[in-house]
């Protein structure tokens, strides 16, 4: 957060879309509860980005262009999909969209879209 505070642009939140895989279990797991979970190796429910903020991919999105460990800098922040410029490798200086991806937790009842 310290680095983001040094960048002059406004923070823009991106929220995950948490849902239950088994609809019969929806009563036992309200959305507020799902949003509060902090699952290892999953991004937080609220991810804040600023234009000019550096980011590192933690998962392969589009190999070989967008692989885990790719460094990017946020260029624009639309309502749903941030756009970033690749800072290293063969695709340096190319723009890439960073879409939400479906991640399923170990518990087969819970699905998290980031």
UniProtKB/TrEMBL annotation:
| Pfam families to which the protein is assigned, alphabetical | Pif1_2B_dom
Q: Which InterPro entries match?
A: Pif1-like_2B_dom (IPR049163)
Q: Which residues form the DNA helicase Pif1-like 2B domain?
A: 32-74
An example molecular function term from Gene Ontology annotations: helicase activity
Looking up PANTHER family in the UniProt record yields:
ATP-DEPENDENT DNA HELICASE, PTHR10492
**Per its record, how is this protein called by name?**
ATP-dependent DNA helicase PIF1-like
Q: Which organism is it from?
A: Octopus vulgaris
């Amino acid at each position: 957060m310290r680095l983001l505070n040094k960048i002059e642009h406004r923070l823009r939140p991106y929220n995950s879309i948490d849902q239950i895989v088994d609809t019969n279990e929806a009563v036992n797991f309200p959305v507020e509860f799902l949003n509060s979970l902090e699952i290892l190796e999953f991004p937080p429910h609220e991810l804040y980005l600023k234009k000019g903020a550096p980011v590192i991919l933690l998962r392969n999105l589009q190999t070989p262009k967008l692989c885990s460990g790719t460094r990017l800098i946020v260029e624009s922040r639309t309502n749903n999909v941030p756009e970033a410029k690749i800072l290293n490798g063969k695709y340096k200086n190319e723009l890439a969209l960073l879409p939400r991806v479906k991640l399923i937790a170990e518990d087969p009842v819970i699905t998290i879209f980031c």
